[in-house]
What does this fold into?
Amino acid sequence: MINRKKKFLQSANELVQHLNEKLDKDVGYPDQPSWGYAFSYLLAKQSDSIEFKELAEKSVMHLRRQDNSHPNYSWEFVVFALQKLKKQSRLDKMDVLDGYHEKGTRMFNWFLLRNINKIFCGQFSAFDKYKLYIGLFLFQNKDGLILDEFKTRSLQYHAFCLFILAHIIEKQPDNKILKKHFLEGVKCAISYILEDGSAIYIGRGQEQIFGYGSLIYALEFCHSRIEKLDERILNKLVDKVTSLQREDGSYPLVLRTRQPEDNDVCFKSNHPDGWYGYNTLYDYQPFLGYCLFMAGTFK
It folds into this structure.
């Protein structure tokens, strides 16, 4: 277990060094993210080391420069990152960005994000709680898989839903209903993990680091806070992910050993295999870094 925690923290530190090098003070990241500046800020504020501090200063500066009046501004992710920092007493004064906002995307993972954000902001009502329970009843299969849309399986978005549920449970530790749904989802996710550690190979976002980061966070949270899991499985998962980190600290967006991605690719210029139009390295790498770092700190 200690060895696994060290792997998480070492990988996260190397990824922060890479992101700090890539984030230019004047122009930002090479490929402009949607919510990646917010998550870079969240990740970077978790430590006081030099690279983390530099990344935090640059990321919050570019976050403030983004056009948050645009109808596609990813409020749910930005609010999550800033409110998480606020709860950790690490948020600098944000003015207009502080508080609850939403874009309103209908996918179930966005619905869950709005719920944790309302909890963070003190706006979670009894009606919201009722809708959350109904949503989980409707979108979670009998085998524990959480669907992002009806009749659509995605192991990545199942994992991200578990990531959000872990944060909700952290704020509501006595909620037995949520814990039941979460544990069913965890056991379902574990049942899909192969001997080589592959775990995100069905549906939208196959083998993407967004899903792997979410799954690592959710399983380590469960193992530390709720119910012990098979450490052999947890070790397989971290070994699979960290084995594909490059020497410069970066990660490919899609994890694969055969014909791996080139460095610094983007959808618009390169159309890499396994990417969608909304994918950018600089949303998903900071998110992965946050998941790895926090997984390394769970007691």
